[in-house]
Write a structure and sequence with these properties.
Blueprint: H1 18-25, E1 33-37, E2 40-43, H2 44-60, E3 68-71, H3 78-89, E4 93-96, H4 103-113, E5 117-121, H5 125-134, E6 140-144, E7 153-155, E8 158-159, H6 160-166, E9 181-186, E10 196-200, H7 201-215, E11 226-229, H8 236-248, E12 252-255, H9 264-268, E13 274-277, H10 280-288, E14 300-303, H11 310-322, E15 329-331, E16 333-334, E17 344-345, E18 364-368, E19 375-376, E20 382-387, E21 394-395, H12 399-405, E22 406-409, E23 412-423, E24 429-434, E25 438-440, E26 445-447, H13 448-455, E27 461-471, E28 475-484, H14 492-502, E29 506-508, E30 511-513, E31 523-526, H15 540-549
Parallel strand pairs: 1-12, 3-4, 3-5, 4-9, 5-6, 11-12, 11-13, 13-14, 14-15, 28-31
Antiparallel strand pairs: 1-2, 6-7, 7-8, 9-10, 10-21, 16-17, 18-19, 18-20, 20-23, 22-23, 23-24, 25-26, 27-28, 29-30
Helix pairs in contact: 1-3, 2-3, 2-6, 7-8, 13-14
């Protein structure tokens, strides 16, 4: 394990449930607003009331500790938050799905989870009957009508409030249940299919505390108090990082359930201090945000899901400055869904261009040689492995992944991230690429992040992705998929200019890099846009398929 300079002892993680931690976060602040959804504001007192009502209704429907409730919509809405807190209060877990999830996939997981409760949003009576018929284990379907009220949550003809009134029994507190599974969420599927992840109360609490400690944001901080999220709940960055963690930290979260290119002005006009977003949002804001929208209240713009490239980061800073946010801090970071998106962060740190932030307290890493398993020292490139209390418990129902993705070192369980990186003695991480984005060629390894950095030096390029493609000489080689800047012609002259720039020496951090002939892209393919996954991330699998077909 690397001993990072200045890294302190792990922050204390109380052995309590999320529901109990939420109750603690309300102390002396019951009447403060915790959630804003369009024209509705919800105080912490109202959330506690609604949590109790929903918990009673779930108990009346037969939900018990250890059950998994399937939610067929990851919409960032108030009722989904209350559902989680209510289920957590009685010891049940929640799993959110994207509304675009294929029906067969949803039914498969319902069967795996043995769910008796299915939650849907604004479905017709006929659609609900069909779902109940096809999902053999489902006894009840809760249908949210979109009003964000518990009266609008129906089970057949009865709403949740009426159901709760029928329950005369005790509502368990489920306070000290650190090791109980609370959330089953999914990876984005950008490089492989989405994988189900089990998180305990302890892991979720640890993730919230580690992020808060790293950010140096205090409870009830008035300068950084309102947090806007743009990501669906079926991913950890959407639900846990950018919604529940700020709520538990004393903040107010602004939900964006119907965000689209026509209403950026409306949502950003709600004056958030912090914006949780993905890199793709930058380009959309450049196109669709009205020039007169004032963003001067934004203190922090945090990128998640994918890291911000230096070129995109520069555009983000320019965008913020043009809208008055001259003091906003741009925060880049790195992490996988398996560790709630937290391996390194620049939140609360001095920005180091070219890095993805610093490893915070509570997160422990090793760098290993992927071929020999040998542990490497600082500044050496290898596979990054991570350990921490915020790590997933298991891949749900996937023993082969648990065998493949974890290793034990001196009694500690480490996650093999599959990402190549180097770490400085002070803990700053420089990503080189994923194992999928790495070719072990003779005469030299090819790290796609180095290739991409070389290609992106051209002032003709707007964006670039590097994937593996076939090659006669080396078997595999780097292929560059490129989106050009407006007005740049898609021809061989442009290709030659890009390749010439890619062959020049440049810096990544303190390293001087010159691509070898085996690292220069074999082909350059021009696209108008990159294919996207449901998580609004680049679909590298599709790009690889295109490369194989060329």
């Amino acid at each position: 394990m690397l001993k990072i300079q200045g890294q302190k002892r792990d922050p204390s993680v109380p052995p309590i449930s999320i529901s109990a931690l939420f109750t603690l976060s309300c102390f002396k602040h019951n009447d403060d607003i915790a959630v804003n959804q369009k024209d509705l504001n919800f105080t912490r007192r109202e959330m506690k009331r609604d949590r109790k009502i929903f918990a009673k209704a779930l108990l009346e429907l037969g939900v018990k500790s250890g059950d998994i409730i399937t939610v067929a919509s990851g919409r960032p809405v108030y009722e989904n938050i209350i559902l989680f807190l209510a289920a957590n209060k009685i010891g049940a877990a929640i799993s959110y799905f994207d509304e675009a999830t294929p029906k067969n996939t949803l039914l498969q997981y319902i069967e795996e989870f043995k769910s008796t409760i299915l939650v849907v949003h604004e479905k017709t009576e006929n659609r609900i009957k069909t779902l109940k018929k096809d999902a053999k284990t489902i006894k009840y379907v809760i249908n949210f009508d979109g009003s964000s009220t518990l009266e609008g949550a129906q089970v057949g003809k009865t709403n949740i409030v009426k159901l709760a009134e029928k329950h005369k029994g005790h509502v368990p507190r489920n306070t000290f249940s650190a090791n109980k599974v609370a959330l089953i969420t999914f990876t984005s599927g950008s490089t492989s299919g989405p994988k189900p992840l089990e998180f305990t109360n302890k892991a979720l609490v640890a993730g919230a505390i580690f992020n808060k400690t790293a950010s140096k944001v205090k409870m009830w901080d008035k300068d950084i108090h309102t947090w806007m999220q743009f990501v669906k709940f079926n991913y950890p960055y959407g639900f846990w990082v950018s919604t529940m963690s700020p709520i538990l930290g004393g903040g107010e979260v602004i939900l964006t359930p119907d965000i689209n290119t026509t209403n950026f002005d409306y949502y950003l006009g709600k004056n958030p201090n912090t914006v949780f977003a993905v890199p793709a949002l930058i380009e959309l804001l450049e196109k669709y945000l009205s020039p007169d929208v004032d963003l001067s209240q934004i203190k922090m713009f945090a990128s998640g899901g994918e890291r911000l490239d230096p070129e995109v980061a520069d555009r983000a800073i320019k965008l913020l400055n043009n809208h008055g946010a001259t003091r906003a801090v741009l925060c880049n970071g790195y992490g996988l869904a398996e560790v709630l998106g937290l391996i390194s962060t620049s939140v609360g740190q001095t920005y180091h261009p070219g890095t993805v932030g610093k490893i915070p307290d509570g997160v422990h890493v090793m760098i290993i040689d992927p071929e020999t398993g040998e542990e490497l020292d600082f500044s050496h490139v290898g596979m990054i492995c991570v350990n921490g209390k915020h790590m997933l418990k298991n891949y749900y129902g996937r023993p082969e992944l648990n065998e493949e993705k974890f290793m034990m070192v001196k009694g500690k369980r480490y996650l093999l991230t599959g990402d190549f990186a180097s770490v400085s003695p002070s803990g700053f991480v420089t990503l080189v690429g994923r194992s999928r984005f790495f070719i072990n060629n003779v005469p030299a390894k090819v790290y796609f992040e180095y290739v991409r950095a070389a290609v992106m030096r051209s002032d003709l390029i707007k964006s670039c992705c590097i994937v593996k493609g076939p090659d006669k000489k080396y078997e595999s080689a780097a292929y560059a998929f490129i989106i050009l800047k407006d007005g740049v012609p898609k021809n061989d002259k442009t290709r030659r200019a890009i390749l010439k720039t890619a062959g020049e020496t440049f810096n990544i951090g303190r390293d001087r890099i010159t691509l070898k002939p085996s690292e220069i892209p074999r082909k350059i393919i021009f696209l108008d846009e990159f294919p996207q996954t449901e998580a609004d991330k680049i679909n590298f699998r599709k790009l690889e398929r295109i490369a194989k077909e060329l």
